[in-house]
Amino acid sequence: MSNKFSQSGTPQFKVKKVYSFQIQPQDVDFQYQVTLAALTNILLTTAGYNADENGFGIRDLNKNDCSWVLLRLAVEMKDFPLQYQKIEVETWVEEVGRASTTRNFRIRNAENVIIGQAVSNWAMINRQTRRAQDLILLDGIHHFATGESVEMQKPIKLASVESGLIETFKVKYSHIDINGHTNSMRYVEWISNCFDLETYQKKKIIRFEINFLNEIVFGEEVSIFANEIEKNDFRFEIRKNGATACKARIVMS
Amino acid sequence: MSNKFSQSGTPQFKVKKVYSFQIQPQDVDFQYQVTLAALTNILLTTAGYNADENGFGIRDLNKNDCSWVLLRLAVEMKDFPLQYQKIEVETWVEEVGRASTTRNFRIRNAENVIIGQAVSNWAMINRQTRRAQDLILLDGIHHFATGESVEMQKPIKLASVESGLIETFKVKYSHIDINGHTNSMRYVEWISNCFDLETYQKKKIIRFEINFLNEIVFGEEVSIFANEIEKNDFRFEIRKNGATACKARIVMS
Fold first, then answer.
1. What is the C-alpha separation between A60 and A16, in angstroms, rounded?
2. Looking at the partner chain, which of B41, B178, B218 has a beta carbon nearest the beta carbon of A197?
3. pLDDT above 80: residue A9
4. CA of B198: which chain A residue's CA is closest?
5. What's A159's DSSP letter?
6. pTM, full prediction
7. Which residues of A touch B172 (CB under 8 A)?
8. In terms of Cα–Cα distance, which of A215, A226, A129 is closest to A175?
9. What's the pLDDT tens digit per position in A106-133?
10. Is A156-253 in CATH node 3.10.129.10?
11. A35: nearest CB among B167, B174, B196
């Protein structure tokens, strides 16, 4: 990594970076607001861009037959941007442990006001064994650990949801991506579909968090469970053939 | 319209135009190929751009409390573009009748080879009554009728599909657009989901056509029917609460 240091040994690489997005027609719901699924996709796209630029993107990891998997994500929003509005997403690595790394996000609107923040935890896995790899093996990433957190609660380990079956269906062609798996955005879409339009009209989502536990592949039978455990505190679980694929939480106000 | 004519009376407006697109990651399936739904979306986006530019887009019609509805679409493809590939879509109005207008498309790849063609039929409706309006009332569009067809069979009136129930489900939050309806792209997605991955691996779609009959709104129960009436000739029907929402056909080879 010596080429990335000046002669005095001071790091010269940029550890925080800002990416611009415009909310597209396909990203919005019936109220012209960006959907939680599209917003999640923007965050993950930002993470991908930044990791790529810094030399530890998916394609870099693929060279060693490894890949990133998203373990947990928490998002807090003050305001959801509307169709055609522009946002800026700032992202940086907070810390790099042995088993996982934390990447944070700050979302600003066109007036440069912070409208949202997010925290994500990632593990590096071997693509064949699907087992977590020690991040100490990943050259370069440690220089990017800024130690800077965001002012929100980190994603926690969520409890299981034992009742409240909403629907059961088989995973189809349009649900899978180029890896043959259902991607994170689809999980968020299925969770978002548990609410009726009146809820979206009367309330707003202020916090969303999700734990990813297992991948879902084509043809598997998926069940979606949802429960309001306290007023405006909604818990979700997506199960497939007995195993938990993800657990999630939406807090509204 | 006098400002659009030269002094000799020759039309000066451009009646055919080409729009460029790049196939994005969210547009492709597990084989990195653009999905039929994403391709349909590209065609409808192209139609929207061109109608807007020529003064008879949705927003122009909205001023008179009217809107466009897509009645029928037929697409023939020699080749489906892959992720990140660039395509050019040429579009023009073929004819303008009293009850409907025909818009055609030609799709070229980056090597300027024609990889697909399409024909679409549209009606103008009143937004309150949802009834078709006489296109003679629409100022300006008639100058764009080129009379030029594409070398393929136009979309025909498809027969009903009486058996072969694939699935039944309720229309949810992520299925509806800003008008509160399920949009055309979603119909195509549901039809595409009737095939397993092996079919997509072994065969290719050479013709797709669809008749749109009724809109679907949030909460309605939808049933998808599919039948292979002859080898590689697949017929579909989407029904909601007894009425037919659309009928479609996919021919593979």
1. 20
2. B218
3. no
4. A173
5. P
6. 0.89
7. 193
8. A215
9. 999 999 999 999 999 999 999 999 899 9
10. yes
11. B174
